Task: inverse folding
């Protein structure tokens, strides 16, 4: 193991760490507020990469620059993240009978649509050109958040009309729903885009990304690494400012401390939760695109599953619920992953288990007494 | 055995800080065996925190808690987990009732019998002479329900009981632990005068059986009516202690409850 | 139709023992009535019913989400295959060969003849140990972490131990790696002295016996003192501690029992698969499938777990058929599981056949008996009141 510590690995580890930190923050923010492991977060990360890929061209390059594609991808992920909450988690926090039927209907239609797409796509690929293939994929995926959004909106309006009051949500139900949502998004991606890993076309990547920009300790740093570092630092600083200096940030912190009291203070808890999903999902989209830029040929329906688990391990390492902890944990897990040099996710996970055994609250987690 | 034979529970310089806020500040407390001791004070005085420190739900920042069990053996409670402390002989109820709502009342009481029964998982899986102990648990649980006057509700789900009965069920569950010391956290909260009256009789009966009672309560009629000894907390500190009559007239207590102008 | 409904309602009002006996009688008659294909499906269902009952102990009784239950299926199956293939060659070396090509004629070690009952016990014990070890890191944190730890460990086991030859720990000589396991003819299990013939009625009754044992064990556990403690942990950990329940210890008991039953399921899996299977099938979807069965039937309900897994596997089998050239893609089945989890949690979180929680009102004579019977455990204070 003479090559355990090389400058190249340091560069790699820093980039991975920055990306994991971006994902881990999404996990930790949601956990901090609704105490739920949002399994679907990894899938939002995956969808971020796929949407950017659709825009820059899945089969033929459209000529769109990847950084231009990043913005719509973030918006789409933000919409999906918010709607994941509104359609699946919100109904568990509050019971809304009629809207239940609507949102389940929509989810069911989406599933049928995806199966139909897959069936017809397979049987009739003779008369579908690749372009049409992409267009239909676009259509289904584009409609997905819109339909969910519309239904979620219906749900909100219904809630304005008549509320059945809060029903204490069973934690187990929420967790099972979360894993169900994650599996649905993952399988949909597999059905629509297939199992083959893909990469962004060369034409969409500006040349400087793969050129050496400068060097550290003799290791050349490619432009993409630098972009990842700068993006991560800027986003983290902005997030800190958002959480500590703005009104919505204060509301977020209030909700994570005590939702009931926050609601009594006039904070719309559901909106704050939705906002948290939006921020976390947009960050996941950035991480997804940058990850796919860094690791070529990594865009597949499975990428959210593995990277999501690793990022969750990072959030636990830093102390779940703590945003700074997630950043720190992300970087540390990135180092573990980078220096072990692999696509294998077992080592970060072993680190997480050790953390649970030795200091269950994580590095920056606050000691929490069991309240009576 | 008379009141005051020995001290069941004593705390020495008990202190609890929550991130710089001192919720309980150097509290010394002695609870004598066979007494009903009341812990009173305005909201936020740190009463429930004291309970949580005694039962191990919180770890004290500083100080000692000593408990003497029915065999007169002294135990230091510091660093023990809530279930260990319960098994030593301290049972409690909660301010916001914590029953197992989806379970019939009888089974709630059966859970209180858990530490005093011994059947392990293996004998349960293989069904070794199980029936005998299970029958004993069943009979005893029923008798505890009867003691608090809920025998006719043995099959109801706990969450379907009216509020006052839930409180009494929680007491039955605590009694099933055969405690030496019973901690009651606002047992009369939300009760109507008649229910409070019944509750006072129940607490007296429990005391007369030799179980020491330490209770937190805001209902002054109950506190003054049944307490042998009263400790008043304010801002985490003991500001007065003594017999009900003494405490009632203490200027410090009046100031704590009503403000300076009242004097 | 209403006649049927009325009969069903009558069936539902019978007590547990009668219902169980009726179900058992039907199951015993089944192989004499139905055809061979259906019998194979019933072996599938039986094996997974055992797994579902094992999962139910943790998910249903204790209220912790286990997303890696397939680990027990894998461990149980691999241990079983290993024990079956363990032989001593004439030149004295100990060999295990998990593929037909490496079949070696030899003598048994320690006089071990491949008794399937003994193997089931060993596989169960190994899995119980695995379950305890896997649960240890989660004891000091909120129950949610159990889901992520089980998922992660199952995934690590799948990716690194089971079939990856290049992994840092190579277990492929035990698991057959990517080629899978195909036990040689010589390595048949033995049931009570007689070699077990694959796909014979004996196999059916062996698996049925496994289901019955799992049903009885979990039923007794649920009705016992330990089962009550597990329910207390599920409903309110703080209140459970206030009742003197040692939460960590009871969680570990639940993990061990759940693992043991899972291990039995793994051993039965080998019997059902006739010693030929690939460890590649032990992926995360197997965990989800079993979880779906438990959730659909009703978490914490034994009959629910049985009915849930039966309904689910029947749907699964039906959708895997070829209907006039149209087949449903395998991934679409996964989509259905995902939807099922969400829909059931949202509309019927208690499942199809929820556990019966409500007690029966006591009759007057029962009241009287309880009032007069000596109650050793009824003790109040220092004074003897009984």
Result:
């Amino acid at each position: 193991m003479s090559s355990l510590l090389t400058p190249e690995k340091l560069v790699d580890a820093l980039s991975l760490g920055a990306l994991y930190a971006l994902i881990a923050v999404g996990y930790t923010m949601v956990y901090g507020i609704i105490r739920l492991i949002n399994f679907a977060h990894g899938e939002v990360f995956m969808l971020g990469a796929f949407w950017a890929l659709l825009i820059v061209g899945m089969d033929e390059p459209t000529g769109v620059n990847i950084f231009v594609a990043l913005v719509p991808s973030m918006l789409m992920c933000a919409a999906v993240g918010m709607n994941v909450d509104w359609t699946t988690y919100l109904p568990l926090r509050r019971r809304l009978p009629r809207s239940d039927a609507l949102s389940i209907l929509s989810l069911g239609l989406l599933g049928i649509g995806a199966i139909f797409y897959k069936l017809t796509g397979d049987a009739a690929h003779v008369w579908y050109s690749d372009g049409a293939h992409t267009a239909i994929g676009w259509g289904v995926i584009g409609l997905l958040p819109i339909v969910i959004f519309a239904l979620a909106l219906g749900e909100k309006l219904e809630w304005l009309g008549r509320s059945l009051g809060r029903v204490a949500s069973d934690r187990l139900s929420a967790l099972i729903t979360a894993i169900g949502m994650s599996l649905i998004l993952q399988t949909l991606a597999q059905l629509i885009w297939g199992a083959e890993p893909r990469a962004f076309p060369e034409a969409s990547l500006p040349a400087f990304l793969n050129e050496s920009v400068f060097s550290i300790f003799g290791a050349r740093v490619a432009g993409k690494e630098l972009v990842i570092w700068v993006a991560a630092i800027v986003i983290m600083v902005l997030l800190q400012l958002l959480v500590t200096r703005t009104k919505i940030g204060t509301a977020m912190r209030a909700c994570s401390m005590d939702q009931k009291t926050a609601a009594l203070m006039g904070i719309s808890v559901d909106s704050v939760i939705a906002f948290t999903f939006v921020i976390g999902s947009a960050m996941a989209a950035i991480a997804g695109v940058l990850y796919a830029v860094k690791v070529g040929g990594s865009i597949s329906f499975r990428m959210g599953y593995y990277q999501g688990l690793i990022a969750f391990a990072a959030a636990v390492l830093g102390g779940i619920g703590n945003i700074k902890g997630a950043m720190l944990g992300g970087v540390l897990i990135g180092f573990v992953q980078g220096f072990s040099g692999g696509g294998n996710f077992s080592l970060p996970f072993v680190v997480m288990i050790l953390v649970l055994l030795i200091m269950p609250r994580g590095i920056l987690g606050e000691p929490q007494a069991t309240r009576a | 055995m008379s009141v005051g034979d020995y001290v069941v529970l004593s705390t020495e310089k008990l202190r609890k800080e929550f991130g710089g806020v001192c919720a309980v500040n150097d509290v010394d407390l002695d609870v004598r065996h066979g007494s009903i001791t009341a812990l009173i004070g305005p909201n936020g005085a740190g009463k429930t925190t004291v309970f949580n420190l005694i039962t191990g739900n919180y770890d004290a920042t500083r100080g000692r808690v000593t408990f003497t069990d029915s065999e007169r053996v002294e135990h230091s409670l510091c660093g023990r987990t809530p279930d260990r402390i319960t098994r030593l002989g301290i049972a409690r109820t909660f301010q916001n009732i914590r029953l197992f709502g989806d379970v019939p009342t009888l089974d709630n009481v059966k859970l209180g019998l858990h530490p005093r029964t011994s059947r392990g998982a293996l004998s349960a899986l293989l069904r070794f002479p199980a029936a005998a102990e299970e029958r004993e648990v069943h009979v005893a649980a029923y008798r505890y329900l009867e003691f608090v006057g809920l025998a006719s509700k043995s099959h109801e789900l706990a969450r379907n009981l009216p509020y006052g009965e839930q409180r009494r069920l929680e007491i039955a569950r605590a009694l099933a632990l055969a405690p030496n010391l019973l901690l009651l956290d606002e047992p009369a909260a939300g009760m109507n005068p008649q229910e409070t009256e019944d509750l006072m009789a129940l607490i007296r009966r429990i005391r007369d059986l030799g179980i020491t009672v330490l209770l937190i309560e805001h209902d002054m009629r109950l506190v003054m009516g049944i307490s042998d000894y009263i400790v008043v907390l304010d801002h985490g500190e003991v500001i007065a202690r003594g017999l009900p009559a003494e405490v009632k007239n203490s200027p410090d207590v009046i100031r704590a409850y009503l403000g300076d102008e009242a004097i | 139709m209403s006649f049927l409904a009325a009969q069903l309602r009558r069936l539902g009002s019978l007590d547990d023992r009668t219902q169980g006996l009726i179900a058992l009688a039907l199951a015993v008659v089944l192989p004499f009535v139905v055809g061979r294909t259906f019998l194979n499906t019933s072996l599938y269902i039986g094996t997974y019913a055992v797994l579902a009952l094992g999962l139910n102990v943790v998910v249903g009784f204790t209220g912790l989400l286990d997303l890696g239950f397939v680990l027990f299926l894998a461990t149980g199956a691999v241990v079983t295959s290993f024990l079956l293939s363990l032989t001593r060659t004439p030149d004295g070396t100990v060999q295990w060969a998990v593929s037909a090509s490496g079949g070696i004629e030899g003598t048994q070690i320690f006089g071990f003849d491949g008794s399937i009952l003994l193997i089931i016990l060993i596989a169960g014990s190994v899995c119980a140990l695995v379950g305890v070890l896997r649960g240890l890191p989660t004891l000091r944190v909120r129950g949610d972490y159990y889901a992520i730890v089980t998922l992660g460990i199952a995934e690590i086991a799948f990716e690194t131990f089971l079939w990856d030859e290049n992994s840092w720990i190579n277990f492929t000589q035990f698991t057959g790696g990517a080629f899978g396991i195909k036990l040689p003819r010589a390595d048949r299990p033995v049931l009570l002295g007689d070699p077990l013939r694959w796909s014979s009625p004996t196999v059916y009754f062996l698996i049925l016996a496994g289901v019955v044992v799992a049903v009885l064990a979990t039923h007794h556990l649920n009705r016992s003192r330990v089962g009550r403690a597990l329910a207390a942990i599920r409903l309110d950990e703080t209140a459970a501690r206030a009742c003197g329940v040692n939460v960590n210890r009871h969680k570990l008991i639940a993990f061990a029992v759940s693992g043991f039953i899972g291990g039995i399921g793994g051993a039965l899996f080998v019997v059902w698969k006739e010693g030929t299977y690939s460890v590649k099938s032990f992926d995360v979807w197997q965990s989800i499938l079993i979880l779906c069965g438990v959730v659909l039937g009703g978490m914490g309900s034994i009959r629910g777990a049985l009915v849930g897994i039966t309904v689910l596997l029947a749907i699964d089998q039906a959708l895997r058929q070829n209907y006039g050239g149209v087949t449903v893609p395998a991934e679409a089945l996964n989509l259905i599981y995902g939807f099922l989890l969400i829909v059931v949690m949202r509309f019927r979180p208690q499942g199809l056949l929820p556990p019966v929680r409500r007690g029966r009102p006591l009759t007057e004579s029962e009241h009287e008996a309880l009032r007069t019977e000596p109650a050793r455990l009824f003790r109040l204070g220092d004074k003897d009141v009984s």
Observations:
- Residues 314 and 333 of chain A are 6 Å apart (CA to CA).
- The longest helix of chain A spans residues 130-161.
- Chain A touches chain C through 50 residues (CB under 8 Å).
- Chain A has one domain: 39-301.
